[in-house]
Design a protein that fits this description.
Blueprint (H helix, E strand, L loop, with lengths): L2 E6 L2 E7 L6 H15 L2 E3 L2 E3 L4 H18 L2 H14 L3 E9 L2 E8 L2
């Protein structure tokens, strides 16, 4: 299976099938996520107006990590779907605690 692997503090916490096919309503939801982010997002307390693709991915990963902690399956699925749909080369997400912040790293296929 072609997977997106999510690591938190160097441990695998979730795997998502990158080969899933999305229905029109799911794709419309991902478009709404993008539309919602157009007005700005907050990453670690900083407001980013008109975020770029990388900043959006980081924001989605932060929400994914929170959803994993809360076991919120709907947000987990939507977040992973967004990441693999908008960043098709993405194979790993790393989130590591550093002092009072979280460092996010996105790893793409070479």
């Amino acid at each position: 299976m072609n997977k997106l692997v999510v690591f938190v503090n160097n441990e695998i916490v979730f795997e998502f099938d990158r080969d899933l096919t999305f229905e029109d309503q799911q794709l419309a939801y991902l478009d709404r996520m993008d539309s919602d982010m157009e007005s700005g997002i907050k990453i670690q307390g900083e407001l980013l107006v008109n975020p770029d693709s990388q900043q959006r991915a980081t924001f989605v990963v932060m929400n994914l990590i929170k959803a994993l902690q809360q076991e919120n399956e709907a947000v987990i699925s939507a977040s992973c779907a967004y990441l693999v749909n908008r960043h098709p080369a993405l194979i790993e997400v790393h989130a590591n605690d550093h002092a009072d912040t979280v460092k996010i790293e996105l790893i793409e296929e070479k």
